[in-house]
Amino acid sequence: DEVTAAPGLGLSARVEGQALRIGNRAALEAAGIAPDPGLMADADHAASEGATPVHLAVNGTHVASFALADPGRPESAKAIAALQAMGLQTVMLSGDLPATARAVGARLGIGRVEAGLSPEDKLTAIRAMGPGSVFVGDGINDAPALAAAETGIAIGTGTDIAIESADAVLMSGDPTGVVRAIRLSRAVMRNIRQNLFWAFAYNVALIPVAMGVLVPFGGPQLSPMLGAGAMALSSVFVVGNALRLRRAA
């Protein structure tokens, strides 16, 4: 009948007069509910294998635990390896238990794993990384970090608040899209520098010729028509160089 969400913890509700609470271990402890030792032992074992334990309490008593496992997308490990090959440091910021996060991180090849993080903890971690940080997320708990990162990338299949907080959205949900986005951004910046250099060098070289500086020394005199054609040629080069970005996309 009544549902209350606690970010980073879980949900509490009242159904047919029963007080229900479902979430992680911290949610039970925050409510002053003593975890059942047997259920917690099973939950810890599941966490060591990469599953996420979720606990259910009814009227202040821990009555059940569930192990939720997400096999992950098969492209994830490939995307992580590609990012590392590009010289980027990969870090996993997770709200899951340390055992669960470490198991997933090992499977994906992520060396640095920070687990048990609340949305505020993720926000603090992103701010500590400083300029150049890129955060990829899809959940409600990821929204503050997505907004704080220099570049926030949301998964298109994620929550609306995560999508609204991000700078870019992967519509397909394929994590290799992050790799393509970074490669494209690098290609764009490289192309911009090339075009600026070309425009500067071209104008520095030909404006004096168009002014007739070389005429007293026996150099050519550039007619206005040829000058206009030379400027058009410069523009064609810049546009043509920019069109090469289609191959990087």
UniProtKB/TrEMBL annotation:
Question: Is Glycoprotein among this UniProt entry's keywords?
Answer: no
BP term (GO), one: copper ion homeostasis
- Entry GO MF terms: ATP binding; ATP hydrolysis activity; copper ion binding; P-type divalent copper transporter activity
| Keyword Transmembrane found | yes
Q: Which residues cross the membrane?
A: 196-219, 225-243
Q: Which Gene3D superfamilies match?
A: Calcium-transporting ATPase, cytoplasmic domain N, HAD superfamily/HAD-like
Recorded GO CC terms: membrane
Superkingdom as given in the UniProt entry:
Bacteria
Task: State where it is primarily located.
Answer: membrane
Which compartments does it reside in? Membrane
- A Pfam family cross-referenced in the UniProt record is Hydrolase
UniProt keywords (A-Z) are:
Hydrolase, Membrane, Translocase, Transmembrane, Transmembrane helix
Q: Which residues form a coiled coil?
A: none
What is the official name of this protein in its record?
Answer: HAD family hydrolase
